[in-house]
Amino acid sequence: MGEKTDILQGTLALMTLKTLETMGPLHGYGIARRIEQTSGDRLVINYGTLYPILLKLEQEGYISAEWGVSDNNRKAKYYELTRAGRKQLAAETRSWEETTAIMARFLSPSGDQS
Amino acid sequence: MRLIRAFLIRLGGWLRQSRREQELNDEIDSHLQLHVDDNVRAGMSSDEARRQAVLKIGSVEATKEAMRDRQSLPWLEHLAQDVRYAFRSLRKSPGFTFVAVLSLALGIGANTAVFSVVNAVLLQMLPVKNPGQLVLFNWSAEESVEPPYLSPWRTRDPGSNRYTSTGFLPAALEAFRANSPTLSDVFGFQPGNFYVNAEGSTENVSGQFASGDYCRGMGVGAAAGRLMTADDDLPGAEPVVVISYRYWQRRFGGDPRAIGKVIEINDWPMTVIGVTAPGFNAALQVDWVVDVTLPLALHPRFVAVEHLYQIPISWSVSIMGRMKPGATLEQTRMSLEGVFQETARGRLEVKTLPGAPAIDPAKVPLPQLGTVPGGQGLYERRRSTYEHTLFLIMGIVTLVLLVACANVANLFLARGTARRREFAVRLALGAGRARIVRQLLVESVLLASLGGLAGLLFAWWGAQALLALRPFGSVAFGAGMLQIDTPLDWRVLGFTTAVALATGIFFGLAPALRSTRLNLTEEFQGGPRSLGGSRSTLAHAMMVVQVALSLVLLVGAGLLVRTLRNLHRFDVGFNRESLLFFETYAPNRWRAPLNVATLDAICERIAALPGVRSATYAMHAVLNRKGGSNQGEIR
């Protein structure tokens, strides 16, 4: 596995929202796996850290939760993006892109001083 | 919004802890189960699958703890703990608690009492629909320009040679009503003093004349019967009167049969048609009680009868309006300024210095119209008579509260010394200093809250006592006594809460910080010692503050008493001993005025009473600004 990447809480929340947007309703374990896979296994997370984030997002109304049954007949709590969550995802994506763009310009070796 | 939502959910989580806990466990279990299934599918043995899954999820307890903190409000839990603990510790020392609560109750109670009067006199809005839409008109003019027959209220504008008045000609009311694009209602009113004869007894009652659309425009409801309409205010209309809820209760005992009853006002039969909503005391000066409201159309006749001759129409009507939604005071003023000046043209006098050339009446500088928020009614009297006195009293009671604070802080400091061992043990066991300080603050705020609650009781009669003492100087005219309700509304309760909280933190913080600054090693090696140097500095400082403030209050009170004694000793030029005053109101005053023969007869009867040395009568009693009194001397 690749080296451990320290991820900020806010980033993990954004990844969770994005995952739910792509995958539709999903349980916590599924979200964690999906995030790891999408990162090409370069991100290693303690699955446990995801749950407080899910709870926070649920309290803020960005996702909703409901108990359901998984493909292999296991009871699991499924999370789904709400409309507010979609809006929040769009807003956060935009601001994240802006941040990375700024950082990229800042750190690029040939960046002009203008 | 989101934060509030999350807060409410967490508050709910705090109330349903066991269910949330269960759900949390279920979710972790379900997660592990899913992971184990996956691992088994990938070919692991079930033990290895479980091991890997548990490894991957990380510390389950840490996760649960993080979720618990997020599900509920940890600070709220701690606060609840602290409050319970504070209750226990206060109950253990009832003497301390009693003294502290009593001092605080007096301090907070005095403040609340004064504030509830401030609230009622200076802050409260009229109890009507949307008082914010009401606009009160006034005008200002140069001091040399003056209309004849102006109502007595005028305020000199500071720093200029202009004055402001709220008295208008009745014609202005008509003109405003006809030309007001921004107003949905325009109405006028003016004070009146009446002799009301109901069920055989006559009494002097203060009230007002009001235009027919007054009640609708003001937005006041009826407690019984119906209120005045524009039709009641026409010149030939059946004379009617609307009474206040207060007067209905006092004079008619709240009897619904009072509606439709015919009473005599200044010997004029009038039908009582309704009662205004409870608590409504019209928009006149704050100490003018409005118990009866008569149609404005009757005003000229009342005035003519009283003065026995026809007087010109005076500038005495106050005008208010209700703005349409979205309209502003300035728009209203601009749209009516010209209209107003038209009504004033040619009806003004100019005072000229002797010898100076007379000014052409056509060239008199016209007064300017002004608009102010009308939600509190006429305001001049509040400012001129009550504002300063109330702020002065407020300052005094604040000092009282400070003394109480210093007193309780000292008690707390002593208590902190006695509890050193307890704090030392808790610190040694790993409690943060912040936590202990917070715990002590909770204790002091709790104490202050108890003081605040008890203070509300003090305030309840304190406010009435304050009004009964009449600390507002002489009253120029009117009913003479400030009769207001001092309800415990949200403003007063908010004030008390804020004062209690601030007090609690104010007197609790310094002792709390001081008593938790401990050197643990010394504490356990040497045991609790007597007061250290720096501690006594704080205690001494408190004591100095307390004594200094008490001294200020004591000197102030002493001077006040001395002034009162001097006033009492003042030689008024006649013998004040054994002198008794009483007033009479003649029934049928206008049909058969009280003549000298009747008064002589009354005096003779009084003088014949045993113990009366002599009796006399006067239109105005000595040292009294109200007229119509008899005096008797009793020995």
The gist of it:
The complex is a heterodimer of chains A (114) and B (635). By secondary structure, chain A is α+β, with helices and mostly antiparallel strands. Chain A has 4 helices and 3 strands, in the order αβααββα.
Structural class of chain B: alpha+beta
Order of strands across the main sheet of chain A: 1-3-2
Question: Counting H and I runs of at least 4 residues, what is the number of helices of chain A?
Answer: 4
> Spans of chain A of 5+ residues with little confidence (pLDDT < 50)?
1-5
* Strand residue content of chain A: 5-15%
Average pLDDT rating of chain A = 84
Q: List how many beta strands of chain B DSSP finds.
A: 17
Largest interface: A-B, 23 and 27 residues
- Note the quaternary state here: heterodimer
Beta-strand share of residues of chain B: 15-25%
Radius of gyration of chain A: 16 Å
Q: Which structural class do you get from the secondary structure elements of chain A?
A: alpha+beta
* Anisotropy-based shape of chain A: globular
Helical element count of chain B?
Answer: 18
The radius of gyration over CA of chain B amounts to 35 Å
